[in-house]
Design brief:
Helix 2 crosses helix 7 and helix 14 runs parallel beside helix 15. With 299 residues, this protein is an alpha/beta fold. Helices cover 54% and strands 11% of the residues. Strands 3-4-5-6-7-8 form a 6-stranded mixed β-sheet.
């Protein structure tokens, strides 16, 4: 009996991990945004209710609590939890609004739809980095020009998470200000972090070193003021100009690593191909333009 109880408890304790693994952070955000836009609910008094209002009510969150996916993930509220807040009639209306198949479990159909959409973005990560709307639309990804930068940042976070790196959204939010907003923070120990910047570039190599340098140095200062040691700054872009590479290698104030979008996707593919991959965030701290093919081989 005790052994069975332990098995059940372990299963329950890891259930949320399996639910988060079923859909990426980007897919979760897209699903949440879509439900929020299409959901028309009614509370127990018969009054109209938004998704955020229902989440606050069901999970007993404060009225001033900003309902965002990053916060939900921090509270261990999974995509399954969100979908099961909607009753069967509401979920069927949502399914029809999203023009999904009426066959099978509607909640699973919704999860699968957003998981598949995110897989497409990861598979076409380089096109996203290059702001190649034509290629993205040709494979059924509808996205506006204005959304490309944010989408690239989100997909980059997803790839880093799939490499089993700790993308620390809580720390990032505590450090960011209205003026200085770093894209990504990777925690590699209690005190050491990597600051990540995801840069898209439509034509040619990414070459804005002076602007980027000012940004990352401001982020480094804010992190250090909060007691964190910035082990490395990682900049990800489609490609880099030679001047950008030279300037990054010669910068004496911060340690900078450069990685192309193609290179990061190559590392992810190698990671997924291995049964027991051996990857560490330290591989991203070598400095200069990283050789993705060597990192991929070492995994």
């Amino acid at each position: 009996m005790e052994e069975r109880i332990i098995v059940i408890l372990e299963s329950l304790n890891t259930a949320s991990d399996h639910e988060f693994d079923a859909i990426s952070a980007v897919g979760f955000k897209e699903m949440f945004d879509s439900i929020e836009q299409n959901f028309i609910g009614v509370d127990i008094t018969g009054q109209p209710e938004t998704l955020s209002q229902r989440i606050r009510q069901e999970f007993e969150l404060e009225e001033n609590e900003l309902i965002q996916v990053e916060r939900l993930r921090a509270l261990n509220i999974t995509p399954h939890d969100i979908l099961y807040l909607l009753n069967n009639d509401e979920i069927k209306v949502l399914r029809d609004c999203l023009k999904l198949s009426k066959k099978g479990n509607p909640r699973f159909n919704i999860l699968e739809a957003f998981a598949n959409a995110n897989d497409k973005l990861i598979e076409n990560y380089e096109a996203l980095a290059k702001r190649d709307l034509y290629t993205l639309k040709s494979i059924g990804i509808e996205i506006s020009e204005a959304e490309l930068g944010i989408k690239f940042e989100e997909v980059t976070k997803t790839i880093l998470e799939q490499l089993n790196l700790v993308v620390d959204e809580d720390l990032r939010k505590s450090i960011n200000t209205t003026k200085d907003k770093t894209d990504i923070i990777i925690s590699i120990s209690d005190d050491d972090i990597i600051i990540g910047e995801a840069k898209t570039c439509k034509n040619g190599d990414f070459a804005k070193y002076s602007t980027t340098s000012r940004q990352i140095k401001a982020y480094v200062t804010r992190c250090e003021n909060q007691g964190k040691r910035v082990a490395q700054v990682l900049i990800i872009a489609p490609s880099f100009s030679q001047d950008f590479i030279d300037s990054a290698e010669m910068d004496t104030e911060v340690n900078i690593s450069l990685l192309t979008a193609e290179g990061l996707k190559q590392i992810l593919d190698a990671f997924k191909a291995k049964r027991r991959p051996n990857f560490s965030a330290r591989l991203l701290t070598k400095g200069g333009l990283l050789k993705a093919e060597l990192i991929a081989k070492s995994i």
